[in-house]
Structure prediction request, 464 residues.
Amino acid sequence: MSYSVDFGLVLAEPYGDWIVKGLVTTLKISAVSIVFSLALGTIVAVFRLSRVRPLVWFSLAFTEFFRNTPLLVQIFFWYFGSHAVLPDFVNQWLYKQDFEFAAGVIALTVYTSAFIAEEIRSGVFAIPKTQLEASRACGLSFLQAMGYVILPQAFRIVIPPLISQFLNLIKNSSLVMTIGVMDLTYMARQIEAHTFHGFEAFTVATGIYLAISLIVSYTINLYNTRVLRIVAR
Amino acid sequence: MHWNVIVNNFGYFLVGAYPNGPLGGLAMSILLALGGIFGAFWLGLVIGLMRISKSRSARYFALVYTEIIRGTPLLMVIFWFYFLAPIAFGHSLPEAESALIALIVFTSAYIAEIVRAGIQSLPKGQTEAARGTGLTRFQAMRYVILPQALFNMIPSFVNQFVSLTKDTSLAFIIGVNELTKAATQVNNRTLNAPTEIFLTIAVLYFIICYVLTALSRRLEKRINRYQARNR
Prediction:
C-alpha cells in the first residue's frame, strides 16, 4: 500500500474550514469550562477550609470522587444519565440548548473543579495561619477574611498550577468528541474518515494542541521567573 | 430505577464474557493499566536518564519527546498509533495492542519527568562521593543514585498509575473491550438505565483509584519520616 503525504488536501476546501471550526469549538468549550470550574473549584475549596463539618465532608467527597474516576465515564454519565440526577426544569432548559455542548461543559467543569479545589486549598495552606488570625482579630468575618486577605494572596501562589490545570482542561476537552461535540479532535477524525488522510489531519490537530500547550507553558515560566521573584523579594 | 440491569450484568462489567469469550470489563482495564505502567516505567526511565545525560543530542531528544507528548491530548496519541500503524507497518495492529502502545508512550513522558526530578532532588554530594570512591558514572548511577531516587519516587509512580488507570477508559474509543466499552454496550442494549450503569462503573474505577491514592499518601508520609530520621 502506498501512501502519499499531502498536507495541501487537509488545508484546502472544505477541510481547512473544518479544522478552524473545530479549533473554535475547542476554544469555546474550554473557555466556558475554565470560567465555571474556577468558580466551582473556589467554592469547593472554601467549603473545605470552613469549620462547618457537613461542608467539609461534602468537599472531601466531591474532590475525591471526581478526581478518582475517569473523565470519559463522567462525560457519559452527564450525557446519558444526567436526567435522573438533575431537577426537571434544569433538564428542560438543557435540552433546549446544544445538549452535547452543555453535557461536555458540565463534565469538564466538575472534573476540573475538583483538581482546582485541591490546588487552591494547598495555596491557602501556604499562607501563614497568622494572616487569618490577624484579620479575624481586626473584626473581619470568616468570609471577609477569606475574600479580602487570604484568597488574594493564595491566588498569586496558585496561578501557575491553576494555569496548568486549565491546560489539562484544554487537552481533556478532546474527549467531548465521544458525545458528538464537533471539536478539533472530532474534525480531525472526520477528515480521516472522508479522505483516508489521517496522517495529515492528526498532524495538523496535534500541532495545534501542541502550539496551545507550548504558548501557555511558556507564559507560566515567564510568570514564575518574573512575578514570583518580585513577590519573594 | 432499574438496578436489576446492574445486577444482571455485573459479571460482564468485571471480566467481560470470560471464560466463555474474550476477557473484558474491569479485568481488561486493570491488565491494560498494569502492562502500561510496566512498559512506561522502563521507557520513562531511559528517557529520564537521557534528559540528564552528558550527550547534548540525547538531552535534546528527550526534551522534545517529553514536551511533544505532554503537550498532546492522550486521545491524539491513541489515534496516532491506531490510524498510522497501517501506514507505517503495512498492516493494522489489534486495538488492545495499539492502545497499550499509546498508553505506554504517553505515560512514559510523565514518568521521565518524575525520574528526572527525583534524580535531581538528591544532594549532589551523593554523585560526587560515589565518583570519588572510584565508581564510573554508570556504576554511580546504578548502585548509588537510582536506588535512592527510585525509592523516593514510589508515591509519584503510584499517582501516575492512578492516572493511567483512568486513562485506560480512552481505549474504548478505538474499540478495546474494557470497562467503559462494557458499560456502553450494556447501555446500548438495555437503554433504560444509563444513570445506574455509568454510576456503577464510575464507582468501580473509583474504588481502585481511591485505594491506590490512599496508599500513595501513606507511602509518602512514611518516606518523608524515613528521610527525616536519616538526616
About this structure: The domain at 7-232 of chain A is CATH 1.10.3720.10 (MetI-like fold).
